[in-house]
Amino acid sequence: MLESLTSLIIDSPLNQWILDTYWLWPVLEIVHFFGLSLLLGGLIIIDLRLMGYFRSLNLETINNLVPLVMCGFSLNLVTGILFFIGDPMRYSVNIGFQIKMGLVILAGLNTLFYSWKIKPVLANSSVSSDTPISVKIVGLISLLAWTGVLVLGRLIPYVGTG
Amino acid sequence: MFVWLETTPIAQLVALSLWAYPALLSLHIIGLAIVVGIFSMRDLRLLGIAHGVEPTAFISLGKLAWIGFTINALSGILLFTSQATIFITSIPFLLKISFITVGMVLAVIIQARLSNLLVDDRYINSVDRTTRFLAAISMSLWIGAIIAGRLIAYF
After folding, report:
1. Is B6 on the interface with A (CB under 8 A)?
2. Per the UniProt record, which residue ranges are transmembrane (chain B) (predicted)?
Protein backbone atom coordinates (compact mmCIF):
# COMPACT_ATOMS: atom_id res chain seq x y z
CA MET A 1 0.00 0.00 0.00
CA LEU A 2 2.78 2.40 1.00
CA GLU A 3 4.65 1.64 -2.23
CA SER A 4 1.80 2.53 -4.57
CA LEU A 5 1.25 5.69 -2.52
CA THR A 6 4.94 6.51 -2.90
CA SER A 7 4.92 6.18 -6.69
CA LEU A 8 1.83 8.38 -6.81
CA ILE A 9 3.56 11.11 -4.82
CA ILE A 10 6.91 11.19 -6.56
CA ASP A 11 7.13 13.96 -9.18
CA SER A 12 3.73 15.33 -8.16
CA PRO A 13 3.67 19.15 -8.08
CA LEU A 14 3.48 19.21 -4.25
CA ASN A 15 6.43 16.82 -3.97
CA GLN A 16 8.46 19.06 -6.30
CA TRP A 17 7.46 22.24 -4.49
CA ILE A 18 8.51 20.85 -1.08
CA LEU A 19 11.85 19.69 -2.51
CA ASP A 20 12.50 22.96 -4.37
CA THR A 21 11.59 25.35 -1.54
CA TYR A 22 14.83 25.40 0.43
CA TRP A 23 13.42 27.11 3.53
CA LEU A 24 10.33 24.92 3.83
CA TRP A 25 11.85 21.82 5.45
CA PRO A 26 13.33 23.60 8.51
CA VAL A 27 10.08 25.58 8.91
CA LEU A 28 8.07 22.33 8.85
CA GLU A 29 10.46 20.85 11.43
CA ILE A 30 10.05 23.86 13.73
CA VAL A 31 6.24 23.68 13.50
CA HIS A 32 6.40 19.90 14.08
CA PHE A 33 8.47 20.45 17.25
CA PHE A 34 6.11 23.13 18.55
CA GLY A 35 3.14 20.90 17.73
CA LEU A 36 4.62 18.01 19.68
CA SER A 37 5.13 20.32 22.64
CA LEU A 38 1.42 21.24 22.66
CA LEU A 39 0.37 17.63 22.12
CA LEU A 40 2.67 16.11 24.74
CA GLY A 41 2.41 19.02 27.18
CA GLY A 42 -1.35 18.62 27.52
CA LEU A 43 -1.23 14.83 27.46
CA ILE A 44 1.49 14.55 30.12
CA ILE A 45 -0.70 16.58 32.49
CA ILE A 46 -3.93 14.71 31.67
CA ASP A 47 -2.36 11.22 31.61
CA LEU A 48 -0.43 11.64 34.86
CA ARG A 49 -3.62 12.87 36.55
CA LEU A 50 -5.50 9.84 35.13
CA MET A 51 -2.74 7.67 36.61
CA GLY A 52 -3.44 9.18 40.03
CA TYR A 53 -0.51 11.63 40.25
CA PHE A 54 -0.94 15.38 40.85
CA ARG A 55 -4.22 14.87 42.70
CA SER A 56 -4.37 18.57 43.48
CA LEU A 57 -5.32 18.98 39.79
CA ASN A 58 -9.06 18.95 39.19
CA LEU A 59 -9.95 15.90 37.03
CA GLU A 60 -12.67 17.83 35.21
CA THR A 61 -11.03 21.19 34.57
CA ILE A 62 -7.84 19.74 33.07
CA ASN A 63 -10.02 18.49 30.19
CA ASN A 64 -9.94 22.12 29.08
CA LEU A 65 -6.42 21.34 27.81
CA VAL A 66 -7.81 18.89 25.22
CA PRO A 67 -8.33 21.59 22.51
CA LEU A 68 -4.63 22.52 22.83
CA VAL A 69 -3.71 18.84 22.51
CA MET A 70 -5.87 18.56 19.38
CA CYS A 71 -4.31 21.75 18.03
CA GLY A 72 -0.84 20.21 18.49
CA PHE A 73 -1.97 16.97 16.86
CA SER A 74 -3.43 18.84 13.86
CA LEU A 75 -0.23 20.86 13.36
CA ASN A 76 1.78 17.64 13.39
CA LEU A 77 -0.61 15.75 11.16
CA VAL A 78 -0.35 18.48 8.49
CA THR A 79 3.43 18.97 8.78
CA GLY A 80 3.90 15.19 8.99
CA ILE A 81 1.94 14.62 5.76
CA LEU A 82 4.05 17.31 4.06
CA PHE A 83 7.27 15.58 5.24
CA PHE A 84 5.98 12.34 3.75
CA ILE A 85 5.01 13.97 0.45
CA GLY A 86 8.40 15.70 0.32
CA ASP A 87 10.41 12.50 0.75
CA PRO A 88 8.16 9.42 0.44
CA MET A 89 11.00 7.05 -0.48
CA ARG A 90 12.73 7.83 2.79
CA TYR A 91 9.75 7.39 5.11
CA SER A 92 7.72 4.59 3.54
CA VAL A 93 10.51 2.01 3.90
CA ASN A 94 11.80 3.26 7.28
CA ILE A 95 11.10 0.80 10.11
CA GLY A 96 11.19 3.63 12.68
CA PHE A 97 8.54 5.53 10.73
CA GLN A 98 6.36 2.42 10.35
CA ILE A 99 6.39 1.62 14.09
CA LYS A 100 5.83 5.30 14.88
CA MET A 101 2.66 5.32 12.76
CA GLY A 102 1.54 2.08 14.44
CA LEU A 103 1.94 3.74 17.84
CA VAL A 104 0.00 6.85 16.71
CA ILE A 105 -2.87 4.52 15.72
CA LEU A 106 -2.61 2.68 19.06
CA ALA A 107 -2.72 6.01 20.90
CA GLY A 108 -5.75 7.03 18.84
CA LEU A 109 -7.62 3.81 19.67
CA ASN A 110 -6.70 4.27 23.33
CA THR A 111 -8.19 7.78 23.22
CA LEU A 112 -11.41 6.45 21.63
CA PHE A 113 -11.63 3.81 24.36
CA TYR A 114 -11.12 6.59 26.92
CA SER A 115 -13.98 8.68 25.51
CA TRP A 116 -16.42 5.78 25.22
CA LYS A 117 -15.71 3.70 28.30
CA ILE A 118 -13.61 5.65 30.78
CA LYS A 119 -15.09 9.14 30.80
CA PRO A 120 -18.49 7.85 32.01
CA VAL A 121 -16.71 6.00 34.85
CA LEU A 122 -14.86 9.17 35.83
CA ALA A 123 -18.07 11.22 35.86
CA ASN A 124 -19.03 9.44 39.06
CA SER A 125 -15.76 9.98 40.90
CA SER A 126 -14.76 13.08 42.79
CA VAL A 127 -12.58 15.60 40.96
CA SER A 128 -9.75 15.33 43.47
CA SER A 129 -9.79 11.60 44.22
CA ASP A 130 -7.63 8.68 43.17
CA THR A 131 -8.58 6.92 39.95
CA PRO A 132 -9.67 3.29 39.29
CA ILE A 133 -7.08 0.89 37.87
CA SER A 134 -8.73 0.86 34.40
CA VAL A 135 -8.26 4.64 34.19
CA LYS A 136 -4.64 4.38 35.32
CA ILE A 137 -3.91 1.83 32.57
CA VAL A 138 -5.45 4.05 29.88
CA GLY A 139 -3.27 6.96 31.07
CA LEU A 140 -0.16 4.78 31.12
CA ILE A 141 -0.77 3.38 27.61
CA SER A 142 -1.21 6.91 26.29
CA LEU A 143 2.03 8.15 27.88
CA LEU A 144 4.03 5.12 26.72
CA ALA A 145 2.63 5.24 23.18
CA TRP A 146 3.40 8.96 22.76
CA THR A 147 6.86 8.59 24.28
CA GLY A 148 7.48 5.85 21.72
CA VAL A 149 6.22 8.16 18.95
CA LEU A 150 8.66 10.87 20.07
CA VAL A 151 11.66 8.57 20.30
CA LEU A 152 10.98 6.73 17.03
CA GLY A 153 10.43 10.02 15.24
CA ARG A 154 13.81 11.22 16.43
CA LEU A 155 15.43 7.92 15.41
CA ILE A 156 14.10 7.89 11.82
CA PRO A 157 17.46 9.13 10.43
CA TYR A 158 19.33 6.46 12.41
CA VAL A 159 17.36 3.27 11.76
CA GLY A 160 17.28 1.16 8.64
CA THR A 161 14.64 -0.01 6.24
CA GLY A 162 12.02 -2.56 7.25
CA MET B 1 39.20 24.44 26.38
CA PHE B 2 36.54 23.31 23.91
CA VAL B 3 39.17 21.44 21.91
CA TRP B 4 40.19 19.65 25.10
CA LEU B 5 36.53 18.91 25.90
CA GLU B 6 36.15 17.10 22.57
CA THR B 7 39.08 14.82 23.42
CA THR B 8 37.69 13.66 26.79
CA PRO B 9 36.65 10.00 26.91
CA ILE B 10 32.97 10.88 27.41
CA ALA B 11 32.98 13.17 24.35
CA GLN B 12 34.70 10.44 22.33
CA LEU B 13 32.04 7.96 23.41
CA VAL B 14 29.22 10.31 22.34
CA ALA B 15 30.92 11.10 19.04
CA LEU B 16 32.03 7.61 18.05
CA SER B 17 29.56 5.17 19.60
CA LEU B 18 26.81 4.04 17.25
CA TRP B 19 24.06 4.31 19.84
CA ALA B 20 25.14 7.12 22.21
CA TYR B 21 24.25 10.11 20.00
CA PRO B 22 20.79 8.84 18.94
CA ALA B 23 20.08 7.72 22.52
CA LEU B 24 20.92 11.19 23.83
CA LEU B 25 18.81 12.81 21.08
CA SER B 26 15.90 10.59 22.18
CA LEU B 27 16.28 11.72 25.79
CA HIS B 28 16.60 15.32 24.60
CA ILE B 29 13.27 15.20 22.72
CA ILE B 30 11.50 13.65 25.75
CA GLY B 31 12.91 16.43 27.94
CA LEU B 32 11.84 19.02 25.35
CA ALA B 33 8.29 17.66 25.35
CA ILE B 34 8.16 17.89 29.16
CA VAL B 35 9.72 21.35 29.54
CA VAL B 36 8.23 23.18 26.56
CA GLY B 37 5.02 21.14 26.91
CA ILE B 38 4.33 22.08 30.54
CA PHE B 39 5.48 25.70 30.11
CA SER B 40 3.40 26.16 26.93
CA MET B 41 0.30 24.92 28.73
CA ARG B 42 1.06 27.28 31.64
CA ASP B 43 1.80 30.31 29.46
CA LEU B 44 -1.18 29.78 27.15
CA ARG B 45 -3.43 29.36 30.20
CA LEU B 46 -2.09 32.57 31.73
CA LEU B 47 -2.76 34.27 28.38
CA GLY B 48 -6.41 33.23 28.64
CA ILE B 49 -6.54 30.03 26.54
CA ALA B 50 -8.08 26.96 28.25
CA HIS B 51 -9.22 29.31 31.01
CA GLY B 52 -11.20 26.55 32.74
CA VAL B 53 -7.92 25.26 34.19
CA GLU B 54 -6.95 26.87 37.51
CA PRO B 55 -3.70 28.86 37.07
CA THR B 56 -2.51 27.50 40.42
CA ALA B 57 -2.59 23.94 38.96
CA PHE B 58 0.76 24.81 37.38
CA ILE B 59 2.48 25.26 40.75
CA SER B 60 2.82 21.50 41.36
CA LEU B 61 3.49 20.87 37.64
CA GLY B 62 6.49 23.21 37.86
CA LYS B 63 8.49 20.42 39.54
CA LEU B 64 7.79 18.15 36.59
CA ALA B 65 9.08 20.82 34.20
CA TRP B 66 12.29 20.99 36.23
CA ILE B 67 12.71 17.23 35.86
CA GLY B 68 12.42 17.69 32.09
CA PHE B 69 14.91 20.55 32.26
CA THR B 70 17.39 18.37 34.18
CA ILE B 71 17.07 15.58 31.58
CA ASN B 72 17.82 18.10 28.84
CA ALA B 73 20.63 19.89 30.64
CA LEU B 74 22.43 16.54 31.14
CA SER B 75 21.72 15.11 27.69
CA GLY B 76 22.47 18.53 26.17
CA ILE B 77 25.86 18.80 27.89
CA LEU B 78 26.80 15.33 26.65
CA LEU B 79 25.70 16.14 23.09
CA PHE B 80 27.64 19.40 23.33
CA THR B 81 30.92 17.71 24.31
CA SER B 82 31.03 15.67 21.10
CA GLN B 83 31.25 18.77 18.87
CA ALA B 84 32.04 21.50 21.39
CA THR B 85 34.17 23.62 19.05
CA ILE B 86 31.40 23.67 16.42
CA PHE B 87 28.53 24.37 18.84
CA ILE B 88 30.30 27.15 20.72
CA THR B 89 30.69 29.20 17.53
CA SER B 90 27.15 28.47 16.28
CA ILE B 91 24.91 31.56 16.53
CA PRO B 92 21.66 29.50 16.68
CA PHE B 93 23.16 27.41 19.51
CA LEU B 94 24.17 30.49 21.52
CA LEU B 95 20.72 32.03 20.96
CA LYS B 96 19.05 28.79 22.04
CA ILE B 97 21.04 28.67 25.30
CA SER B 98 20.26 32.37 25.98
CA PHE B 99 16.52 31.87 25.38
CA ILE B 100 16.45 28.82 27.68
CA THR B 101 18.33 30.63 30.44
CA VAL B 102 15.92 33.58 30.41
CA GLY B 103 12.97 31.18 30.07
CA MET B 104 14.00 29.31 33.22
CA VAL B 105 14.50 32.57 35.16
CA LEU B 106 10.99 33.62 34.08
CA ALA B 107 9.69 30.20 35.17
CA VAL B 108 10.94 30.90 38.72
CA ILE B 109 9.33 34.36 38.71
CA ILE B 110 6.00 33.10 37.29
CA GLN B 111 6.02 30.23 39.82
CA ALA B 112 6.39 32.74 42.67
CA ARG B 113 3.55 34.89 41.31
CA LEU B 114 1.27 31.83 41.03
CA SER B 115 2.08 30.88 44.64
CA ASN B 116 0.99 34.38 45.68
CA LEU B 117 -2.42 33.69 44.09
CA LEU B 118 -2.83 30.77 46.50
CA VAL B 119 -2.20 32.97 49.54
CA ASP B 120 -5.28 35.05 48.83
CA ASP B 121 -7.80 32.70 47.28
CA ARG B 122 -10.13 35.54 46.26
CA TYR B 123 -7.76 35.95 43.29
CA ILE B 124 -7.28 32.26 42.60
CA ASN B 125 -8.66 32.44 39.05
CA SER B 126 -7.49 35.89 38.14
CA VAL B 127 -4.25 36.59 36.35
CA ASP B 128 -2.80 40.08 36.61
CA ARG B 129 -1.35 42.04 33.69
CA THR B 130 2.27 41.61 34.71
CA THR B 131 1.92 37.82 34.93
CA ARG B 132 0.22 37.77 31.52
CA PHE B 133 3.05 39.86 30.10
CA LEU B 134 5.67 37.51 31.57
CA ALA B 135 3.78 34.52 30.15
CA ALA B 136 3.81 36.09 26.67
CA ILE B 137 7.57 36.66 26.90
CA SER B 138 8.10 33.13 28.22
CA MET B 139 6.04 31.53 25.40
CA SER B 140 8.02 33.53 22.82
CA LEU B 141 11.32 32.42 24.38
CA TRP B 142 10.40 28.73 24.25
CA ILE B 143 9.26 29.03 20.63
CA GLY B 144 12.52 30.90 19.98
CA ALA B 145 14.50 28.10 21.62
CA ILE B 146 12.83 25.52 19.35
CA ILE B 147 13.48 27.64 16.24
CA ALA B 148 17.12 28.25 17.17
CA GLY B 149 17.63 24.62 18.19
CA ARG B 150 16.38 23.32 14.84
CA LEU B 151 18.47 25.86 12.92
CA ILE B 152 21.71 24.60 14.53
CA ALA B 153 21.61 21.80 11.97
CA TYR B 154 21.31 24.26 9.06
CA PHE B 155 23.89 26.98 9.86
Report:
1. no
2. 20-40, 61-80, 86-112, 133-153
